[in-house]
């Protein structure tokens, strides 16, 4: 097996947009430049938000843009037994408790850190979330390949956090940690909007006895209002008819300085050259990255 296994893990809540493409291109190039594998995982653990047909649309878009993946696509909604097994391991270790606190209950404390109200509920309760017990202090740190050294005391920032929701769905934090471990993921390239999840996930990896992957958080593309490009802010789907141009733009914003002539080539040609020249150290280290003013992102969808 290659020393490098990366992954791209979109949520099927709608079509891929340019912000998603930026992360996918970065992760794909990083994996291929290392001679590694690049997996695709559909993160539909939050089934309430899943849109019918979105998963198939995402996979077709990746193919149209030349971003080929290795192995079978993992779908989180089919992996609930694996998440349950991890939760039961944590329960045996005394790492979890059941919490019936509502948002209004917590709001009365006027702070974002969970105050530990239900820590004595170590046996299962109905109509309750499951939280991971976080000791104080709980310092975590990791070297981010784009943003540099990152440090956080999980106890001070979030406190005990939810790993299974009150409605019975497993939380993102638990699902992604189990998936990465079981799929042998060694390198994670994802958007900077997920940076504040990382130290929680590292602590959860430690409690489950998993290895910690290398991380690289890619700056977010923001629109003219300074909002992250997302489905919630009206980001449009990707037009495969202009795949080459959009990939070239993504590489340019990622600091890779692709030759201007490549913008007229096919995705395969552009990506082949991108892998040959890829250097993740060139990726801008800011948390936000305005779209290139010469080629506005929203216009690039429709040209």
From TrEMBL:
Keyword Ligase: yes
Keywords: Aminoacyl-tRNA synthetase, ATP-binding, Ligase, Metal-binding, Nucleotide-binding, Protein biosynthesis, Zinc
Extent of motif 'KMSKS' region: 228-232
Positions that bind L-glutamate: 7-11, 43, 172, 190
One GO-annotated biological process of the protein: glutamyl-tRNA aminoacylation
Binding-site residues for Zn(2+), renumbered to this chain: 99, 101, 114, 118
Pfam families: tRNA-synt_1c
Sample GO molecular function, one term: glutamate-tRNA ligase activity
Cofactor: Zn(2+)
Protein family membership: Belongs to the class-I aminoacyl-tRNA synthetase family. GluQ subfamily.
Described purpose of this protein according to its UniProt entry: Catalyzes the tRNA-independent activation of glutamate in presence of ATP and the subsequent transfer of glutamate onto a tRNA(Asp). Glutamate is transferred on the 2-amino-5-(4,5-dihydroxy-2-cyclopenten-1-yl) moiety of the queuosine in the wobble position of the QUC anticodon.
Name the record gives this protein: Glutamyl-Q tRNA(Asp) synthetase
Annotated organism of origin: Fluviicoccus keumensis
